[in-house]
Backbone:
């Protein structure tokens, strides 16, 4: 009977294997993102192309992600995490409501314009019966926006109750969905009647108006051109 391997050695081997597996998974994701970025919007993501890009055989890619559908979902989730990181940075509440909204909308439109093929990929429904990664990310983002309003409320000496928090969350689910649909439609146009700056202004004005009306129902009076908090 072979001697038992000390647990610290097994743990060390497992840790190194986990690190190796995660590094390879990251390489495959980066390769897949590069393949999508260089392809025309709407092109299928193929395991063969990804494997070739990263210098692996197809079976290795399958071992880490499964089939094409699973890899596509993983790429969608990774791309969305990177994209949403641009619009989930801490918000300076000494800025005006208009400035905050315009900055978030601008980052969104700028990313879509700069990454048309990645945008087409994350918008794609996979038809596997699961909630889309974009819907999941949008719901999480609504929670982020809800916390901005909650922070403004606390800074003004009030706390949102459960009903107010729920209605605020739903408002931002709707706003995020509105921006998503409008930008996706705009991006799909062959010729833009509105340029990117005009689209950003339109969406910003719409969002600001909706937030001000909702804030009033919470007892918060917001001026779009005044600092949210302080000065």
Residues:
């Amino acid at each position: 009977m072979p001697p038992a391997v000390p647990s610290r050695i097994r743990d060390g081997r497992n840790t190194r294997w986990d690190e190796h597996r995660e590094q390879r998974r990251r390489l495959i994701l980066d390769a897949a993102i590069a393949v999508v970025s260089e392809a025309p919007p709407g092109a299928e993501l193929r395991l063969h192309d990804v494997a070739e890009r990263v210098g692996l055989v197809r079976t290795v890619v399958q071992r880490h992600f499964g089939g094409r559908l699973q890899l596509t979902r993983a790429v969608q989730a990774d791309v969305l995490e990177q994209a949403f990181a641009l619009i989930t940075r801490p918000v300076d509440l000494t800025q005006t409501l208009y400035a905050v909204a315009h900055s978030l909308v601008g980052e969104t439109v700028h990313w879509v314009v700069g990454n048309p093929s990645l945008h087409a990929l994350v918008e794609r429904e996979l038809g596997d019966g699961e909630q889309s990664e974009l819907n999941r990310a949008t719901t999480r983002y609504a929670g982020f926006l809800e916390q901005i309003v909650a922070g403004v409320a606390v800074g003004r000496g009030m706390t949102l109750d459960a009903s107010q928090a729920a209605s605020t969350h739903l408002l931002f689910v709707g706003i995020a969905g509105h921006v998503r649909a409008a930008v996706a439609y705009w991006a799909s146009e062959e010729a833009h009647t509105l340029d990117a700056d005009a689209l950003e202004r339109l969406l910003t004005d719409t969002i600001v108006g909706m937030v001000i009306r909702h804030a009033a129902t919470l007892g918060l009076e917001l001026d779009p051109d005044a600092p949210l908090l302080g000065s």
